[in-house]
Amino acid sequence: MHRFDFVIIGAGPAGESATYEARSRGASVAVIDRDLFGGSCPFWGCIPSKSLLHAADRHAAGADYPWSRAAARRDYMINREGIPYPDDSGHVHDLGNAGATVIRGVGRLDGPGRVVVSHEAERHELDARNVIIAVGSATKIPPIEGIEKVRTWTNKEATGARDLPASLLVLGGGPTGVELAQVYARFGVPTMVVQSGPRLIPTDHPRNANAALHALERDGVTVRLGVRAIRAHAAARPADPDVIDLDDGSTASGHAILLAVGRTFPLDDLGLDTIGIDPADQRAVPRDGRLKIADGVFLIGDPAGPELHTHQAHYQGERAIRMALGDPVTPDYRALPRATYTDPELAFVGLSLEGARDAGHDAFELVADFPKTAKGYSVEAAFGHVTIVVDRASHELIGAALATPDASAAMHECVLAIQARVKVEVLAETIHAFPSTSRIFNGLFSEAARLLAAATDQPAVNGR
Predict the structure, then answer these.
(1) What is the spatial distance between Cα 116 and Cα 214, in angstroms, rounded to a whole number?
(2) Chosen domain end from 233, 261, 289
(3) Among residues 52, 353, 93, 362, which one has the least CA distance to residue 181?
(4) What pLDDT score does 164 carry?
(5) Coil/strand/helix, residue 226
(6) Cα 303 from Cα 371, distance rounded (Å)
(7) Does a structural domain hold residue 310?
(8) Residues 219 and 274 in one domain
(9) What's the CATH number where 443 sits?
(10) Which residue, 92, 362, 425, 445, is the most exposed by fewest CB within 10 angstroms?
(11) Which of 261, 282, 306 is the last residue of a domain?
């Protein structure tokens, strides 16, 4: 039996992050994956979708950027040029160079400190001081009658398509559904989004949800909110679209139907029962991001929660190794950034005003209408916003959201401020370049400092 300090089941972003952190600390590591080392993000998720979003933006602006060029560039990005399936050898090589033992196969627990790996006729038994489970997630198949009879796409087909469909129906209005709807609509594909809830991107800030709606409708996407798919009917001919019945009596159709209603977590066949854990028991496997689920066993990445982000997976991989090696650390998600890379970009960190009040904060909110700012005016913005949420008692920034062309980058000042518990008075004193999006934050911070000073009859920043 081979012995390791860490056996890591899953080599996506979380598993890779854990592997590199463990090796940097001198720990021995075996890392196992049944499919692509590197996981979904570089091959079927973040990287190809952002490449296609860039291409769609260029195409919509009138550049010579047809779908053939977009698909070729995407294939280059995911190491799939001229081959049917991506090549993950670069990830395998880098993990091996870091000193990890790389095993392609199916790993499962077989009691405390023991992992069995199967690959075709081979079987390996590994002894582990610690086991890290980083198995990622898969597209959720919604419980729709007849869904197996129609032409469905997961994120793999949507980000990997080499030909445009005649029309696209997106079931689900989260970040994946919204981003890919904009991609295909901008390439001229008739596109509809069906979202069961009252707004798009329900985990994002409400103003960002409104911005997403404006962006999709501007690009010609039909958005149906508050309706649910209940039944699917296959087309009689390949040239015809498949049809979905909705619960309000209407229908929606598409030659491809993208399933973007959520993710499932493949925990059932990992042998968790051999260490006394029922994977179906939410108390035993809560999606709260705690990471440690048993002595010497850590769950990281998508199945761990609290949300679904590659940067969260990177963070959790490093944090789990540090926890296992005895560092006095615990996960902290107060400043977990969220970003959706549509045009305009959407970003959110911390709490909305409603969320802050629900959490017991005496908070207030300030909002800047992006088109009326110097930056918004210079880029001819038709909509968008910059919003901050401040706690009156602590004078700290506790939330921020924005819908602007550079939202994912501009947000990180607020990420740091929340993480470091910076007072708004300090943020207001900080010099921001004009006319950047961050300069809009500067004005909001100064206004917040004035309001807090007025409430306590104290001088505000710079005597104002």
Answers:
(1) 51
(2) 261
(3) 52
(4) 98
(5) coil
(6) 39
(7) yes
(8) no
(9) 3.30.390.30
(10) 362
(11) 261
Q: Is 18 a member of any domain?
A: yes
Q: At what angle are helices 13-24 and 89-97 packed, to 10 degrees?
A: 20
Query: How far is residue 281's CA from residue 249's CA, in Å, rounded to a whole number?
Result: 37
Q: Dihedrals φ, ψ of 111, to 5°?
A: 105, 170
Name residue 65's amino acid.
Answer: Y
Q: Is residue 79 part of a domain?
A: no
Q: Which domain holds residue 219?
A: 147-261
Token code pair at residue 257: 């139907």
Judge if 255 and 282 occupy the same domain: no
Residues 197 and 162 placed together within one structural domain of the fold: yes
Strand partners, 6: 29, 130
Residues 371, 330: contact at Cβ < 8 Å? no
What's residue 463's pLDDT? 41
Token representation of residue 118: 């199967």
| SS3 label, residue 118 | strand
Q: pTM for the whole thing?
A: 0.95
Do residues 132 and 15 both lie within one domain? yes
We report the CATH number of the domain holding residue 26 as: 3.50.50.60
Q: Does one domain contain both 116 and 154?
A: no
Instruction: Give dist(CA 320, CA 291) in Å, integer.
Output: 7
Flag whether 119 is in a domain: yes
- Low-confidence stretches of the chain (pLDDT beneath 70): 1, 458-464
pLDDT number for residue 456: 81
Residues 104 and 172 in one domain: no
Contacts of residues 122-128 at CB distance under 8 Å and 24 or more positions apart, as own/partner, are 124/2, 125/1, 125/2, 126/1, 126/2, 126/3, 126/4, 126/7, 126/30, 127/1, 127/2, 127/3, 127/4, 128/3, 128/4, 128/5, 128/6, 128/7, 128/30, 128/296
In this predicted structure, what is the pLDDT of residue 121? 83
pLDDT of residue 464: 39
In terms of domains, do 219 and 111 share one? no
pLDDT of residue 458: 63
Spatial separation of the C-alpha atoms in residues 176 and 197, rounded to whole Å: 16
Query: Is there a single domain that holds both residue 108 and residue 230?
Result: no
**Pairwise CA distance, residues 20 & 10, whole Å:** 13
**Which DSSP string do the residues of 242-287 spell out, in sequence order?**
EEEEETTS-EEEESEEEE-S-EE---TTS-GGGGT--TT-TTTS-S
Q: Count up the domains in the chain and report the number.
A: 3
Pairing outcome for strands 29-33 and 101-104: parallel
